[in-house]
Amino acid sequence: MRYILLTSIVFLLTSCTKEVTPTANIKGFSYYPAGKLLPASSGTGRLGDNYIYAPNIRFPIESAPAYINSQVYGVGGYLGPKGSLCDQKNYAYPWRDNYCEKRGWKMPLCAGGKGHQGVDIRTATCEKRKYYAVAVENGVITSIGKYTVKLRGVSGRTYRYLHLDSRTLQVRKGQRVRRSQRIGLVSNNMGKTPTSIHLHFDMKQTIKIGNRSKSVFVPPYTSLIDAYKRLLSGNP
Amino acid sequence: MRLLFSILLTSAFLNAEGGVLDVDWSGVTKGQQKLTSYPLVLTKGIANVHLPVYVANSVAHNNNLVVVADKNFYSISLDIRGASLLFEGDKTYQESVDKSNPKFKNLLNHISAVEYVASEGMMLAEFSKHGINYAITVECEEPKTDKRCSEQGFVESLYNEIIMVGGRP
């Protein structure tokens, strides 16, 4: 108990830092901390939650570079600075978390109980049907919807891949897949109402609380930072 | 330094050891378990599922169902005109936390019989039965204009007609 109290106090004190400097890393990779959304009006992230919910997963895009940042509040986004969605600012480090970004969707893990259920990832360039999304762990493809592929990993965690090009999918329902196996090409598919070119990636897992449980979309950002570092170091 | 303490704090509350939830079979009637008039694709697909299996009554007899399952989970999908339906149940868990965990205290407020959730142009019904978590997902070809995916009514009607079609202890 004393240990928990002590770490809580230290955590609260260290959380008071106002501006956060991106963390530099290998091959120029840098990122803002988990929960640091852009701008302040885009919502409240889970600042300080650096827990890796899905340890040792493979990064869901086959090759680097890739960029996690907001589709809505980035350049060209409908609530972002005016410009092209293909603006170079959207295709550059540092990464920016967008889990819990403002949405009208129920999200018990976000402040206010609503928010973005995963993160949006841009590929190396602003081109659709060029970069593969891959399996983050061994598992089975449980469903393929109009614009969603769902993978259930051997961990029991489920991962949703949205906006892949339906015509280039490399998997079928019920197919067992290996970590790093190609799933499909990143695109702007959202049925008959296309979206911007990106992969929406989210992770759902069941959390047991005492003798009750809840299946919930958990923060993917720190797990993806961890995975991306392995990808950059040549050991995905 | 901040990262280190954050990790320490989080790890003090979390137990990354996953496991399998106990199914409360007391609420499952014997009559429900004996239902056998469903398509082979369904009965064969869920033959080894060790949790109660629920689908909407209106689709349970459809021969085009696709079933992906093992003993701990099932996923039953069906394409209908302009939309995909998905019925899922899973008895595994990936984290175990204490009730006092401040990071997850809100979760307890969201554990209810059924909750309707919009998600990336889809509509979900998430519900709990027998101590297990289930979900129904409706995904539309035209998510912005198809009311089945922009309003709660359709997924709610699917939830209201779910029936147990199999599963065993």
In the residues of chain A, how many domains can be counted?
A: 1
Structural class of chain B: alpha+beta
Give the percentage of residues in beta strands of chain B: 35-45%
Mean of all residue-level pLDDT scores of chain B: 88
Q: How many structural domains in the coordinates of chain B?
A: 1
* Shape call of chain A: globular
Strand order in space, largest sheet of chain B: 4-5-6-11-10-9
Mean pLDDT of chain A: 91
Calculate the terminal CA-CA distance of chain A, rounded to whole Å. 38 Å
* Approximate strand percentage of chain A: 15-25%
Q: Report the total helices of chain B.
A: 6
Q: In percent, how helical is the residue content of chain B?
A: 10-25%
Radius of gyration of chain B: 18 Å
CATH class of chain A: Mainly Beta
Helix content of chain A: 10-25%
Radius of gyration of chain A: 18 Å
Proper CATH architecture of chain A: Distorted Sandwich
Largest beta-sheet characterization of chain A: 8 strands, antiparallel
Number of distinct beta strands of chain A: 12
> Strand-and-helix sequence of chain A, N→C?
HEEEEEEEEEEEEH
Ends apart, CA distance between termini of chain B:
49 Å
